[in-house]
Amino acid sequence: MSLFSNVMNAASTSSAFVAPKPLATSGAKKVYDLEYYLKGAAAGGICCSITHGALTPVDVVKTRIQLDPAKYNKGLVGGTKTIIAEEGAGALLTGLGATCGGYFIQGWFKFGGVEFFKINAVEALGDEKAWALKTPIYLASAACAETIADVFLCPLEAVRIRSVSDPDFCDGLADGFGKMLKAEGIGGFYAGMGPILFKQVPYTMAKFAVQGAAADSIYNATGSSAANPPAIGNLGVSLGSGVIAGVAAAIISHPADTLLSMVNKAGAGGEGPIFTRLGRIAGEVGMVKLCTNGLLPRCVMIGSLTAGQFGIFDTVMGALGASKFHFHDPNSD
């Protein structure tokens, strides 16, 4: 036997010991390996970049309402008209580069991470226990994935908010990075890390847990499943459950979103550590306004954004040839 044959035999024997464990999802054995996770990460980056980028005008108006409610006090439509009248329509695309870039990176780690953590949890627990613990698995997977994603998102979000609150601050993403780095150092990019975690982690936990529960409810109500979808198809289920999840997640995370917008405004909260500044801002604004300023446009934005994300994610996964993971009820066999 040749040396080449010996090497190939050894490699094939070795690979048998490291092959991913098959899981009984949607009634069939499927293997989830590195290729699957990379496809999930890519689909997550694409869906988050597209949806957040498309809603940049809504986010600009929402951020202005949060930062200056006295001026922008006529709601989403009124705020849009004010910005266009004073700064031109182009102002509604302020921070587009930072938004698309930041949320591609965030979506890569968030969606890819959720897939990784929940599948590994199912492998560790087994189908029966995992089915009973679906919601805790969603919550824990989302929290872990979002925390990792926010390490990469925070600097881009800081530049975006600064450019929206001060349109003259920079001439694009690279210019904004340079100016913030020179003026505030690396710490300036992470001034909002505390509130961004406070906002994004509960938001993502609610987003994935509620979407999963809503999708299950739709399947149960129509007597269908992911393997045998209802008349609206799996895409319709993703869109419908995404709207429900988005509105719930927006309400839960809105106070922290308002604080994040405010703390990145130059001079906000005075001097001192980040949580001291946040405390001052919260005391000045009041809890009611933190919970309500800009809430309606944010619900519109996040509801449509989340529906779009889950719809695009499923579509891209299908286009990449990946069969999406679904929890499996062992009692249905």
Report what the structure shows.
There is one protein chain. Helix 3 packs antiparallel against helix 14, helix 7 packs across helix 10 and helix 10 packs antiparallel against helix 11. It is globular and about 60 Å long. It has a two-stranded antiparallel ribbon with strand order 1-2. The chain starts with a helix and ends in a 14-residue tail after the last helix. With 333 residues, the chain is an all-alpha fold.
Question: Summarize this, please?
Answer:
The chain is an all-alpha fold and 333 residues long. The chain is 75% helix and 2% strand.
Task: Please name the defining characteristics of this protein.
14 helices; disordered N terminus; two-stranded antiparallel sheet; 333 residues; mainly alpha
Strand % is under 5%
- Report, as a whole number of angstroms, the end-to-end distance: 47 Å
- Rounded mean pLDDT is 84
Report helical residue fraction.
over 70%
- Which shape, going by the Cα principal axes? globular
Number of strands: 2
Separate helix tally? 14
With strands numbered from the N-terminus, the spatial order across the biggest sheet is 1-2
Helix/strand class: mainly alpha
